[in-house]
Structure prediction request, 577 residues.
Amino acid sequence: MLESEQARLQALQRLAILDTPPEERFDRITRLAIHLFEVDIALVSLVDEARQWFKSRQGFPLAQTCRTVSFCAHAIKGEGIFEIEDASKDSRFENNQLVTSPGGIRFYAGVPLTTSDGFRVGTLCVIDSHPRRLSYAQRQALIDLATCVEEEINRIGLEQEIVHIREARRRLEEAEHQQRSLVHALASLNEISTSHELSLAEQLNAALALGCSYFNMQIGIISRIENNMFEVVSVTAPEGVPLSNGLSLPLANTYCDMTLKTGELLAIYNVGEDNARHYPCYSQFGLEAYIGIVIYLDGEYFGTLSFSSDSPRDTDFSEADKLFIKLLSRWVSAVLERQRVDTLKNEFVSIVSHELRTPLTSVIGGIKLVLGGVTGEMSDQTHDLLSMVLKNSERLGELINDLLDMEKLLAGQINITCEPYLVNELLSISLEENQAYADQLGITLKLTPLKKACLINVDFLRFQQIMANLLSNAAKFSLPGSNVVIVCDESEERIRINVKDTGCGIPSGFKKHIFKKFSQADGSDQRSKNGTGLGLSISKALTERMGGTIGFSSEEGEGSTFYITFPCLKENADANA
Prediction:
């Protein structure tokens, strides 16, 4: 079988037999050959690219020789026995140093050893210092012994193939596990990203906790790098680790310095065995495993996202690990950008709101005075124009108040004072205070009171603010002549207050945005309704500040039900009943 030399060498390498220790299964065959053929030397020779190496040798002191002086290199070129009766008289070998040296080779007989896939990788050969010729029986015996060697070599090949198959299966299973872990982690990240319950800062913390779980590492940090200083933006770490948001350190004392120098990603699974152990931060922090990546905002680096542990990992970071942190860094970058935009927006809204509120109050007061006749009589046309200006000014005032409320909520500056109140009394007041607005729209507000007294612990003014938002929204989106109903569902521990309308319902694509700031549905009918898009966002924040929850159910074209839920103080209710 004629195959390229490169393919033959690859077949030899696949056996993984070169430079391995002696084995009795081969040595017993070469010992038997010495005894059977009464020769000086017997070898199991394997012909490599530049040498012949002896897996088994009897009577020969060297473990290998150069291929250029090898008799076996000639033997593997053909099939069957390659026999030289007297090498000193053969033009191919007469000047070979193995022949011309004292006691040199005269007789050589070798049988090629062929792998199961047809490559001749070496020989079983017998050598003597005297000329001779093998008899037919001896030639057959040498072929039989070579067959035994071939079987052992091919058994090794089979063993190696089994090892390769097992290793390939292990790598495949590991890759599948990594892919499953990656998909699960990305799904969890998507849940974090779409959560309406988490602020952007809480989303960053949740993402760091997810990363720590994914990498099985203890510490996760998002940092800002500025003026050669490392500042912690967000961190998750075990108790007792002296890390917190806002902590600043010299950049040179952190692994992030090394990360920035790489320009993108740095992954070290065992720092103690890496050149990084010479870095100052290793002796200072003693972190044994680290993976970090540069975070970019607007094309310029912001800082780093990193995970670390005080113990080394058993294995290096995989390609799936590196892909995960790359994807996570892009997500973090997007969240940081949203934080930056929100901060700018909130600062702008705060400034504008405060600057507008005082002059607008004066404008509204002045218009009311004029409409009240302070300046004398006016034409009907002037009265109508001023009434429209007043209405729009009051709407602008409501927007400013909503903006200021939202600002205070974000800053944690709204005071909430909760006290026990009877639900029926609270809802009766809500109905009374909001009926005038509903009348303007031709809507009737109705209350189905609780049969049993029930107390809830709320801030009276903030509760009424929430109910005003829910009732005005329900009336605004209902058809004239219809009813908006307040009905309660009571369980043993909680009470749910429902505001039901029979209006247009909420488009399915808008539902996930319903409690976001400035959110308003895109339908033309909804755009025609007055509103700031802040009422539900404020209601949600206030409800949660008072220990309650808020939610809704809606079918487009069939109406909506918005509800708030609070714990029930039953014992106190019974006492007050």
Q: What stands out?
A: Residues 107 and 404 are 105 Å apart (CA to CA). Residues 522-528, 572-577 have pLDDT under 50 and may be disordered. DSSP finds 15 helices and 19 strands in the chain. The two ends are 103 Å apart (CA to CA).
